[in-house]
Amino acid sequence: RRQRQAYAVGSALRSGAGRTAVVLLESLLESATTEGERAQWSSAWVVATTWVEGRPPAHCDALIALGLNLLDAGGPDSPAGLDLLMALASCQFTWGDYQFGRTIADHARERVSFDELPLGHQLTCDMLDLMTGVPGAGSFLSTPWIEDVKLPHLADPSVPIGMAGVLLGWLDQLEACDRIVRRCQEMTREHAGVAATELAIGSMAVIGVERSGSWDLAVQEYARAAQVCIDSDFPAPLPFISLRHAYLMAAQGHHDKCEELRTRALALSPHLSPSVEHLDACVRGLLHLSLGRPADAAQYLAAGAAIERRSGSVISGLTSRFVDHFEALWRLGRSVELGDDLAEFSTLSESMEHPGMLAAAARCAALEVDEQSIDAAFERVTSLERSAPTNVFESARTQLLWGTRLRRAKRKADARSHLLLAEQAFARLSATAWLATTRSELAACGERRHTHPQVWGPLVALTPREFDVAKAAAAGASNSEAAESLFVSPRTVEYHLSNVFRKLGITSRRELATFFGEPS
Question: What is the model's pTM?
């Protein structure tokens, strides 16, 4: 009976039946007769509850002691002790207490060398080191570890493939992130029904989409990822997904939609984690900065900085928290308050050799230079931006701030060229609030041209299912192939595809491919 329960746990975790797995594991824990068995089922229970509830166990210290005792004793139960410690470390990473998570991982590494750790544990250790600023962190993430990933890894929710890919995206290694996405897609095409992998693919794929400026496509990807959480009964990632969606709405300046998504995220997070609290503060800060309320923005972003200090994080995650905070205070004439923080941020950027962070630090510094040095300082920023993967939003903000500084220096003719570039980019992104700010600056420079580019991408008109069908067709799938991958009938695909063509005003798959950036 217990062996069948154990098989059922594996099936439940692979298929996404999270609550079923938790119930089964609690039954197995009650019947455990040895410390090794208790560690084995506790490890799986921690993983399952992380995906279902998103919080660490209340008896975390007792579980750490159990894992350490088994590791120190050696013998056949030692691997169960190691797995338990690393499950707890990974849980703390998800929760957002990075320093505590690294402390747990360090206990394991004191007893087992990094090279002897299984792949999933190596990823967890490197991710925790990266978040807490350990020198040389991220080196393992940057290796071609994805080539060693097999189907058992893919089906195991304890192997943090998706988060590892997301952090690679944050490190500006978008090609590596894309390789992981393609590898996961190849395996899921052969072995469907791995819920954790579906979430991993979505969370990684959206990074490049956001950076490239295809924000209408990113909105659909967030909606799709949320639906996977709901369908799979892995609800813990839902608040994070909703807040990432809200972050996009904040960047666009859509107050009501942003607040709706924020409210939903917090309602879905009864146990408010530091990671959710931090992202929420960043969302609110960016929203108020977008809407021209720097004092409110600075208040929320300072709260985000405080959470980073408490959690042991030296980076702001996939947000622009520090540079948003600096810009808000600069607009208030108070950026000197972050002088020491800017020096620390610049030093960290250089030690990590992170192109995006280096450009962000240079932009903050460019806001402070004297009038004679404006162009040289911002030219350095744009040079650094060109060395990093494309980030349309941040590049547009650089052009806006460059133009603003030139306009304040009474160089209106020079300012216009930069402001016009910013206007074009913000219009493409549907960033209506930033677009309004840019046009206000243009008007102050004497620009009387009133153009109103399209500020909503057509893909937002599609339903989630229409979007899935359109994406598959754009990638070259036939109706039958799309039907097989989406678990619907070819007739259903045909129905949705006709709606897609009507809404987008097109008549062929060749035209459809252009909306997704696919070669036609």
Answer: 0.85
> How confident is the model over 481-508, as pLDDT tens digits?
888 766 678 888 888 899 888 888 788 8
Tokens of residue 366, six digits: 């460019």
3-state secondary structure of 57: coil
Angle between helices 339-352 and 321-331 (to 10 degrees): 150
In whole angstroms, what is the distance from residue 57 CA to residue 19 CA? 15
What are the tens digits of pLDDT across the range 205-257? 888 888 888 898 888 888 888 888 887 778 888 899 999 999 999 999 999 99
In the chain, the N- to C-terminal Cα span, in Å, equals: 55
Q: CA-based angle 78:96:44, to the nearest 5?
A: 35
What is d(CA 366, CA 335) in angstroms, rounded to the nearest whole number? 12
List all residues 6 or more positions away from 321 whose beta carbon is below 8 Å from its beta carbon: 278, 281, 282, 285, 301, 304, 305, 308
Distance in angstroms (rounded) separating the CA atoms of residues 452 and 5: 61
CA distances in angstroms from 388 to 211, 354, 392, 401, 440, listed in the order given: 11, 8, 11, 19, 29
Residue whose structure tokens are 């996977």: 228
* CA angle 166–290–399, rounded 5-degree value: 80
E strands, 179-228, are: none
